[in-house]
Amino acid sequence: MNETKQESQLLADAKNIHQELIAWRRHLHQHPELGFEENDTSLFVQERLRQLGIEFQSGIGRTGVVGLIKGDEPGPTVALRADMDALPIQDAKNVPYASKIEGKAHLCGHDAHTTILLGAATLLTKNKPKKGQVKLIFQPAEEGFGGANEMIKDGVLKNPDVEIISGLHVHHTAETGFTTVCPGLSSAATDMFNLTIHGKGGHAAHPHLSVDSIAVTSEVVSALQQIVSRQVDPIAPLVITIGKIEGGYARNVIAPSVRLEGTVRTLDLQLRSEIEEKMNRVVKGICDAFGATHELEYEYGYPSVINDETLIPILQEASDTILGTGKLSLAKPSMGGEDFSYYAQQVPGIFFRLGIRNESKGTTFPLHHPMFDIDEDALPLGSAMLTQFALSALRRLENS
Ligand SMILES: [Zn+2]
Ligand SMILES: [Zn+2]
């Protein structure tokens, strides 16, 4: 078969469903659901798969859906993964498709990921693999709840056994029509902590009779950054961010305690294992100095995504075919986290970024920003890229 002809056909097919993709994405964007609550999103995905005649299972990893597109003959299995959950942030966009749900919005682009995978499902029903099959993984709860892990526990990588997996994330740092990938170690391990500083409450006018937990906390917050700058190798990246502080009652009351919530990001496993102890030591030292005490709850979250470098030529082929030559570039690791890592720990995987930046459309805001939006021209490109990747990966598995 003439590959170039078939492959440019994929892009043409994707462009033919552009309006449908936009409608799906806008529907999802207006009806965001948080992690493990994606009931309507899951039903929406199931309805599309049913219309396409694709067999699927629902309730995998609670609200996840897994579709299977079989080729003409039996063979290997390649999986494509999209996440479906939204964020607990108020949408600040003034557009007709803005979130209709107060305090919830698709500001990480997972509505686009779900749409792009539904688009790939549509393309694959028309361009079935000759041999083998493509598993479509619609995953819940990427934003901190580890939906990938739940799906793996429910057997998503088995029966048929997945041999290669890929997925994408839309990203504002790349222009529409471009894509980036980081070879090897590509995202941070993301750990979480809750820290409580206990002082002694009292009257604001008599600080000497109490222990001011807010004053102690201010020392703690800056001292934690000294771990980053003075206690670890500057070549080993570390982020300690406190994203939330709560404490106190009124202007004339000394706060008895303060609670802080934060995240720790590392790329190095050894360093990752040292941070909890370093934090305890620094916080205890400050609390001792001022007569306060502390409690640190430290929880290990997502591991780093490790992209299998042997899959980069397949991604390169997909990029060259769908986007044109010179559109894929290599990126540095990100301190962001991504639970795609759980799949990539089990089977060879590659996670790449799809450009959605378009200055003229104003799609320049970063992920998790209240104004985040995508250039919808990227939707068919994503669908065609994933489809091309799956078909090329299957061909490579057959020939290996
Ligand atoms: Zn996110
Ligand atoms: Zn995301």
UniProtKB/TrEMBL annotation:
InterPro entries: Amidohydrolase, Bact_exopeptidase_dim_dom, Peptidase_M20, Peptidase_M20_dimer. Residues 193-284 form the Peptidase M20 dimerisation domain. It comes from the Bacteria. PANTHER family: METALLOPEPTIDASE, PUTATIVE (AFU_ORTHOLOGUE AFUA_6G09600)-RELATED, PEPTIDASE M20 FAMILY MEMBER. NCBIfam families: amidohydrolases. This is Amidohydrolase. It comes from Caldalkalibacillus horti.
